[in-house]
């Protein structure tokens, strides 16, 4: 199948260099294009998770189609015809350059924009992304015919491909985004794509020359190698599906249940790509036994502290445990995947199955799990699945392995449903679960028993946590996990009092006291002693007939500032939030204070475009996804939109409380550039009033005279925004999260 080493030696340059460079460049361009085009879409469709999820599924589907094309091309045609067909595809794909949105692109004003988004992505970047996605399997197959001494096992080139992916992933937020606007990024990427096409042609010509003296049937000969069986391909499918799903599940879990830190999603994806680099490298055989031994050992500590008793650890240590457990699980799965790779004759089939599994993982987490589960349960399910995929599943009497976990499950279910005073035994049950987690290490050589027992432990743990958190209601949508909890807190007299709290992930988005005298008292970030309460109090004499718009509904506490004669409009992207806030069973702010308030469901920026100009007296911006404000609501164009909708003496109140980002820097720069006036209050409650929280607000007006009343107020300490130096203005073309990190 391969040419002799002597023929390869005639070339002054090793054939490895152009092939590795091309694979590296291809992966780099792919991982730059994804976040870049996501930012291009952001002002058009808003920062909803549904948009990002749809984009991800589009990328994974196109990647699968690219691998399918590579398998078809390399298995059906000889070298000359392969080069001719692929060259024609490269030339044809140039019509999409430079990558940009189609002219007059506008999402539908009614209905779900998913199909419109997929079609727009296809028109804008479909052809270039498809070409880039074909590069890894096709070039590795071509290299296997190069006659190089390593061409018999070209899979190590996959490490070069993933190294490019890793470089692009880390470079985009830290190097590209801070220095280049989107317009420049598009031009640079398009130029890079042209360079990639030239490199692909160079590799294709090298492949054709090496095979020029062979007939097509010789190039396509199977060299007597047996094709992979259906069972083997299903094994590949499982080994690639579980890590793909685990990646998305962990990313959502840590972003909602551990820490809503911006750019945190980069860390799991970095580890995921790193595993591919390691398992397809020359170190793989030495690393494999260490990974197999470390996974169950770390699992014991991981289950005991991160699931059974997470409150004992600081969030950063809990996060590290999750990341280590994830890395080991993916290393084991990808290690077995790499170990079972076929002869290079079936290389493209191998990658085709891998890409199909990755697409299935994305589809499952994006479109199945949110409708089947009311929390991120796909994450612990895939933890168990990764254990079941350890080597040795069919060794010995595997059918006897689940007996012990089955006995534990049966006994546990009897205790679980028969005890009326389960909370009296929580410590005892927790200790028993930790003991079982320790016992699980002894089953490390029996994947079915280890996975079954771990599944039993996680099942009981998640059930107990749900009971202990007093969760009254929990639902999940594209926008995340929303829950209502029944919490007991001390009142002003230190007596226990029951309150309802609204959570998005781990971030509290509202609360209501249930005692009769406090049912209509705004709490948390909207309390009367706080900044937004001071705004309503200071302008009390003139706000009798105000037209007020509020972006972000939460529990509806803001509605209790309503006065007869006012007109209120709430803009909320998640229909579930509207349902929860309007249900008196959970919260009664709206039903008691402002039942006639208008609800506009959809992205606030898109919805506000439709509002009449100069119609609002006050706009309250309080849009958060967990702990982060969507960046497209913070750009200069967004601020210009808000003031286009405000009257000349209108006020813009911006909620900027954030644990990680100094959002005041962004607003200070806008105020300076647009010649506006603004005041900031970083409120700290002086008394221990229940659920009156520390919160930061900025109030902006066209003229400084409009804010004098607040500046002279005795209700709170309002001050001018600090001067900001060296911050590049945030626009729809440019945002930079790292630049405002606290």
Q: Could you explain how this protein is built, in words?
A:
This protein folds into three domains: about 15-210 and about 230-390, MFS general substrate transporter like domains (Growth Hormone, Chain: A), CATH 1.20.1250.20; about 400-470, no CATH class; about 525-740, Rossmann fold (3-Layer(aba) Sandwich). It contains 24 helices and twelve strands. The chain has helices spanning about 5-10, 15-45, 50-75, 80-95, 115-145, 155-180, 180-210, 215-220, 230-260, 265-280, 285-310, 315-340, 345-370, 380-390, 405-420, 425-440, 445-470, 530-540, 575-580, 590-595, 605-610, 635-645, 665-675, 710, and strands spanning about 470-475, 480-490, 495-505, 505-515, 545-550, 565-570, 600, 615-620, 645-655, 675-685, 695-700, 720. Strand 1 and strand 2 (about 480-490) form a beta hairpin. The longest helix is centred in the N-terminal third of the chain and has 30 residues, at about 15-45. Residues about 1-15 have low confidence and may be disordered. Keywords: Polyamine biosynthesis.
């Amino acid at each position: 199948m391969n040419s002799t080493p002597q023929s390869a030696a005639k070339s002054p340059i090793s054939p490895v260099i152009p092939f590795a460079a091309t694979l590296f460049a291809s992966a780099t361009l792919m991982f730059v294009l994804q976040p870049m085009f996501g930012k291009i879409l952001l002002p058009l469709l808003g920062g909803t998770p549904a948009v990002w999820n749809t984009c991800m599924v589009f990328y994974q589907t196109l990647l699968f189609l690219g691998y399918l094309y590579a398998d078809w091309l390399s298995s059906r045609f000889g070298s000359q015809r392969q080069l001719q067909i692929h060259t024609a595809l490269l030339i044809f794909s140039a019509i999409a350059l430079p990558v940009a949105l189609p002219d007059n692109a506008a999402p539908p004003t009614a209905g779900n924009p998913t199909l419109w988004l997929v079609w727009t992505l296809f028109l804008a970047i479909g052809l270039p992304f498809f070409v880039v996605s074909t590069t890894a399997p096709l070039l590795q197959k071509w290299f296997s015919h190069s006659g190089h001494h390593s061409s018999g096992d070209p899979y190590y080139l996959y490490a070069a491909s993933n190294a490019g992916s890793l470089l692009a992933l880390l470079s985009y937020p830290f190097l590209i985004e801070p220095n280049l606007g989107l317009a420049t990024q598009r031009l640079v990427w398009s130029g890079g794509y042209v360079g990639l096409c030239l490199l692909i042609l160079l590799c294709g010509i090298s492949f054709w020359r090496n095979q020029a003296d062979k007939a097509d049937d010789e190039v396509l000969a199977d060299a007597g190698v047996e094709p992979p069986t259906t069972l083997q391909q299903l094994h590949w499918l499982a080994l690639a599906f579980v890590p793909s799903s685990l990646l998305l599940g962990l990313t959502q879990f840590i972003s909602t249940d551990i820490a809503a830190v911006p750019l945190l999603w980069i860390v799991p994806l970095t580890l995921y790509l790193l595993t591919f680099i390691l398992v397809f490298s020359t170190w793989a055989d030495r690393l494999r036994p260490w990974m197999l031994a470390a996974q169950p050992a770390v699992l014991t500590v991981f289950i005991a502290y991160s699931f059974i008793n997470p409150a004992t650890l600081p969030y950063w240590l809990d996060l590290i445990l999750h990341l280590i457990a994830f890395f080991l699980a993916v290393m084991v799965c990808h290690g077995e995947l790499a170990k079972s790779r076929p002869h290079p004759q079936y290389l493209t089939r191998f990658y085709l199955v891998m890409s199909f599994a990755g697409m299935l993982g994305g589809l499952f987490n994006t479109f199945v799990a949110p409708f089947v589960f009311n929390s991120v349960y796909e994450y612990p399910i895939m933890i168990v699945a990764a254990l079941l995929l350890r080597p040795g599943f069919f060794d010995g009497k595997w059918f006897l392995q689940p007996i012990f976990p089955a006995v534990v499950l049966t006994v546990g279910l009897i205790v679980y449903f028969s005890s009326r005073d389960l909370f009296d035994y929580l410590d005892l049950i927790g200790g028993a679960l930790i003991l079982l987690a320790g016992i699980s290490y002894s089953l490390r050589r029996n994947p079915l028993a280890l996975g079954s027992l771990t599944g039993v432990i996680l099942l009981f743990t998640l059930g107990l946590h749900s009971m202990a958190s007093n969760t009254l209601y929990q639902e999940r949508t594209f926008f995340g996990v929303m829950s209502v909890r029944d919490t007991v807190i001390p009142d002003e007299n230190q007596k226990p009092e029951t309150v309802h709290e609204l959570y998005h992930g781990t971030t509290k988005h509202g609360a209501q006291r249930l005692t009769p005298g406090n049912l209509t008292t705004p709490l948390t970030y909207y309390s009367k002693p706080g900044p937004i309460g001071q705004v309503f109090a200071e302008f009390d004499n003139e706000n009798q007939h105000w037209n007020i718009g509020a972006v972000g509904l939460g529990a509806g506490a803001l509605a209790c500032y309503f006065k007869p004669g006012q007109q209120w409009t709430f803009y909320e992207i998640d229909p579930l939030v509207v349902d929860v806030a309007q249900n008196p069973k959970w919260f009664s702010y709206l039903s008691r204070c402002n039942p006639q308030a208008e609800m506009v469901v959809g992205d606030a920026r898109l919805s506000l475009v439709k509002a009449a100009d100069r119609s609002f007296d006050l706009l309250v911006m309080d849009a958060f996804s967990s702990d982060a404000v969507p960046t497209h609501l913070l750009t200069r164009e967004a601020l210009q939109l808000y003031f286009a909708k405000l009257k000349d003496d209108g006020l813009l109140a911006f909620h900027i409380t954030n644990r990680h980002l100094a959002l005041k820097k962004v607003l200070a720069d806008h105020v300076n550039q647009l010649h506006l006036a603004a005041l900031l209050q970083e409120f700290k409650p002086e008394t221990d009033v229940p659920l009156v929280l520390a919160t930061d607000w900025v109030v902006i007006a066209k003229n400084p005279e409009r804010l004098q009343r607040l500046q002279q107020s005795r209700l709170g300490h309002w001050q001018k925004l600090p001067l900001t130096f060296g911050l590049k203005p945030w626009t729809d073309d440019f945002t930079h999260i790292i630049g405002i990190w606290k």
